Amino acid sequence: MKVSYYPGCSLHGMGKEYDESMKAVSQALNIELKEIDDWSCCGASAAHNTNFELSVALPARNLIAAEKDAMDVMVPCAACFNRFKTAEHNLKSNKDLKARIEGVLGAKYQGGISIRNPIDVIYNEIGLEALAAKVVKPMTGLKPVSYYGCLLLRPPEVCQFENYENPFMLDKIMSAIGADVKNWSYKTDCCGGSLSVSKTPIVTQLCDKLMKAAREADANCVAVACPMCMANLEMRPSRNMKMPVFYFTELISLAMGLPGSKDTFKSHLIDPQPLLNQLRLI
Amino acid sequence: METFLDEVNKRINGVPLQACYHCRKCTAGCPGAPYMEYNPNKVIKMIQNGQKDKVLSSSTIWLCMSCETCITRCPNNVDIARMMDVLRQMAIEEGVAAKEANVLKFHEAFLSSIKFGGRVHEMLMTVHYKLKSGDLFGDVDIAPSLFLKGKLSFLPPRTKDLKSVKSIFEKTQN
Predict the structure, then answer these.
(1) Domain assignment of residue A77, yes or no
(2) C-beta separation of B15 from B78 below 8 A
(3) Chain B residues in contact with A227 (beta carbon < 8 A)
(4) For residues A148 and A129, what is the distance between their CA atoms, to the nearest angstrom?
(5) What is the CATH number for A264?
(6) Residues near B55 by Cβ (< 8 Å), separated by ≥ 6?
(7) Do A150 and A250 reside in the same domain of the chain?
(8) In sequence order, which residues have a C-beta less than 8 Å from that of residue A227 and are 6 or more positions away?
(9) Is residue B3 less than 8 Å (CB to CB) from chain A?
(10) Cβ contact (<8 Å) for B174 and A51?
(11) C-beta pairs of A91-98 under 8 Å, 24+ apart in sequence
């Protein structure tokens, strides 16, 4: 399949491991990515916290650019995904707003393409069997908890994510690559998101709670699908609470034995290489 | 005359806040509630009581992390997350000082970065935030390793058609 691709700012900065592993995995699973021409920032929390129309117009600029290629757009960053879906929801449900935003952008929004996240694409378009068939190195001994966070799931009416209070797609993807995925009750709890820099002590408390719960579930790592969750879980827990965190695509890449799959581990803030070495996965 | 409640309801443009029957499900699931001046459901009551100044100057609206758990669980579909957006936007428009000033300063630095390059440059944005907030020493211990690991680049990313991004900011200005 072929999709438009919106990396967003994080995947070209702090979240570069997600971009690199996403591209490698997509290629290996025959998902052809066409980056949206001259994309711009989605506005993230900063826009919707401060100015409603700005928060719709910024993602709409990218949606309209993607519409030129007439393919569904895959958005790996959960925060960008949420802003895209929210903009789509507002544009489709409010005609006056749509007219105003089109006036701001000087272009028409058609609304004909779907906004997808990679968990959904891999689970529903590629399928677990096809994924498992490409595994050359099962992730034996790796015990991740799947952490979905907030922005892929909520609000459910907007995000349309399968089983939003107890999601399972990422868990099943982890099982398909041979990991011993652990069940826990914190799959959808918040890490503190955009308060990371401005209210760090609060975010530390939220991340400590997540890490404590992951340990109680007997996990030895966390699998995420959001660069904000990744940054918070790596940087914000108290020193003695930390454990390795992976983008789920990095683990798929490693399990498929893709070239360069070990490179992204080097830029993690919590080095996952000792764990992977110990398990003889690298 | 339009009351505070009317004004908020109009801007939420969905289920009116009067549909809330204070089951407190929003507050029970809110990760920010333990840190907030007023719980989310209390804010709804305060809006109904017309306590505009108290609400707009409270810490609550700035400590909401927009995790959207409240709207997900509300049995009456009251969009509390959207309400928090509306209250923050009203506070800004009416010049009410943000009780959690650094939260707003971070958003402002983030938006400046978009205006500057079309895409966010994490390093410049962080420096800008630090200058605005005076929080010069937060995360200085992490910064060197971010550089060494190639996570922070010196070169700001750019959207080529920057004019189109700047025009969005100009045309959506209140």
Answers:
(1) yes
(2) yes
(3) none
(4) 22
(5) 3.40.50.11810
(6) B4, B38, B43, B46, B47, B61, B87
(7) yes
(8) A10, A11, A14, A15, A18, A77, A78, A79
(9) no
(10) yes
(11) A91/A56, A91/A60, A94/B13, A97/A53, A97/A56
Q: Do B137 and B143 meet the contact criterion of CB atoms below 8 Å apart?
A: no
Sheet arrangement for strand A115-116: A32-35, A2-5, A73-74, A115-116
* pLDDT (average), residues A206-227: 98
Which chain A residue lies closest to B89 (C-alpha atoms)? A50
Q: What is the mean pLDDT of residues A169-191?
A: 98
Q: Report the residue count for chain A.
A: 282
Of chain A, the end-to-end C-alpha distance in Å amounts to: 30
Crossing angle of helices B4-12 and B80-93, in 10° steps, is: 120
Q: What is the distance, to the nearest Å, from the Cα of residue A276 to the centroid of all Cα atoms in its chain?
A: 22
Indicate the Cα dihedral angle A51, A56, A57, A59, nearest 10°: 120
A193/B133 touch (CB, cutoff 8 Å), yes or no: no
Asked if the peptide bond before residue A155 counts as cis, ω within 30 degrees of 0, the response is: yes
Domain that holds residue A163: 135-278
Q: Does residue B112 surpass a pLDDT of 70?
A: yes
Give every CB contact of residue B85 below 8 A, 6+ residues apart in sequence: A48, A49, A52, B66
Q: Do A61 and B165 touch (CB under 8 A)?
A: yes
* Burial of A277 from C-beta contacts in 10 A (0-12 / 13-18 / 19+): exposed
CB contact under 8 A, A50 and B103: no
Among residues A116, A145, A177, which one ends one of the domains? A116
Which band of pLDDT confidence, cut at 50, 70 and 90, is reported for residue B174?
low
Q: What is the pTM of this model?
A: 0.97
- Topology, domain B4-93: Fumarate Reductase Iron-sulfur Protein; Chain B, domain 2 (1.10.1060)
Q: Name the helix (H) or strand (E) containing A3.
A: strand A2-5
**How confident is the model over A52-106, as pLDDT tens digits?**
999 999 999 999 999 999 999 999 999 999 999 999 999 999 999 999 999 999 9
Could you give the strand order of the β-sheet that contains A144-147, starting from the edge strand earlier in sequence? A144-147, A221-224, A245-247
pLDDT at position A50: 98
Residue B127: pLDDT over 80: yes
A4 bridge partner residues? A34, A73
User: Which amino acid appears at position A182 of this protein?
Assistant: K
| CA separation for the pair B3, A155 (Å, rounded) | 28
Residue with tokens 């699931």: B29
